[in-house]
Amino acid sequence: xxxxxxxxxxxxxxxxxxxxxxxxxxxxxxxxxxxxxxxxxxxxxxxxxxxxxxxxxxxxxxxxxxxxxxxxxxxxxxxxxxxxxxxxxxxxxxxxxxxxxxxxxxxxxxxxxxxxxxxxxxxxxxxxxxxxxxxxxxxxxxxxxxxxxxxxxxxxxxxxxxxxxxxxxxxxxxxxxxxxxxxxxxxxxxxxxxxxxxxxxxxxxxxxxxxx
Length: 212
Hints:
By secondary structure, the chain is an alpha/beta fold. Helix content is 35%, strand content 12%. The protein has seven helices and six strands, in the order H-E-E-E-H-E-H-H-E-E-H-H-H.
């Protein structure tokens, strides 16, 4: 159900150390210095590419990460509902997803210098080589990749970030009380969605293990 690229990520799991974002068309010399919304660079262990741009031969000691991946709290009912709405609206299938509870989420967090607790507080959108967003900025960047009229909502980016994130944090802190949570990733109950998940194979294995 998932691609060969997803399988390669799963096979290489657990061998990364310091991250590097790789982009075929842009040299490191021409990249701007990292800011608060930029991922750090270091030893060549993690590669971030579009699936179609993946080089033909990649050492197994490296991760191949996909662009436009939303890493979110998979047990949260509010978060899962939002993911389903994105999938329905995303006719061009631009956005991929990953539950933060999955092992496959670890290299995405590593390359952006965040921990699981950070993503549970504010979900993570790894948009492109060298760029990631969290919280309200992540939500608006995701919307910008969807068709009109939904993408027009990304114009709310002009609202100051502290104000946007204050509203985001208020809801995030109370999301379990208001909307509920599950014991495991909710997408396990809707396997037809797993083709859009970079951790799809890992989640399928979890389903199989429960059936044994």
